[in-house]
Amino acid sequence: MADIVLNVEVRERTGTGGARATRAEGKVPGVLYGGSKDPVAIAVKSNEFRKALYTGKLLGHLVTLKYGDETQPVIAKAIDMHPVSDEPWHFDLYRVDEHQQIKIRVPVHFKNHEASPGLKKGGTLNLVLHELELNCPADHIPEELVYDLTGLEIGDTIRAGNFILPEGVSVAGGKALVVATVAGSSASASAEAAENAGA
């Protein structure tokens, strides 16, 4: 089960005035929605919310919502930050069953850049997508998807289907989605042409 526990309280007042009053009390306003129940206006103490947020395991992860003695699994779907102070301003939590299949976006990362001949020749890794939308069980959301660039040449394409996914996880948009390409720069292309001419 989730490591993070958010102690929430139900907000009586909603709307802009209610949210402002909540913030004045040192809390972050939010909404709990999803499932068969109505949306509920909630709040979490600002310091507790910041602590959970800065673990890096709040957004897009299964967390435990605690209200009095009741607990339930939820996923933080959205967190709005204040544009000036960069403080958490509002959040949305989504009710889930622990094993329910959900759609969620997960970041993609790449490793072993130095082991790609295409990048060594001066090619560049062009990212088309920074994250992939996955279908996965709520209690098995991958932290990230990592692709090994070893052996990639200029002109190679990395598709969603090339990523190794955990069991029970699939790409929502299909395996053919282009995630990144190894593109040649004009300098590397002319160097290659010269190399081929001399061959």
Write a short abstract of this structure.
This protein is an alpha+beta fold and 199 residues long. It is 18% helix and 41% strand. The relative contact order is 0.14.
How do the strands of the widest beta sheet line up side by side? 1-5-6-7-3-4-2
The tally of helices reads 4
The ordered H/E elements are EEHEEHEEEEHEEEEEEH
Task: Find the count of extended strands (DSSP E, 2+ residues).
Answer: 14
* Global geometry: elongated
Distance N to C terminus: 60 Å
| Radius of gyration, taken over Cα atoms and rounded to an integer in Å | 22 Å
Strand content: 35-45%
The major pleated sheet works out as: 7 strands, mixed
Helix content: 10-25%
Q: Characterize the quaternary organization of these chains.
A: single chain
Show unreliable segments.
none
Structure commentary:
With 199 residues, this protein is an alpha+beta fold. It has four helices and 14 strands. The strands form three sheets. Strands 1-5-6-7-3-4-2 form a seven-stranded mixed beta sheet. Strands 11-8-10-13 form a four-stranded mixed beta sheet, with no helix packed on it. The longest helix has 13 residues. The relative contact order is 0.14. The mean pLDDT is 86.
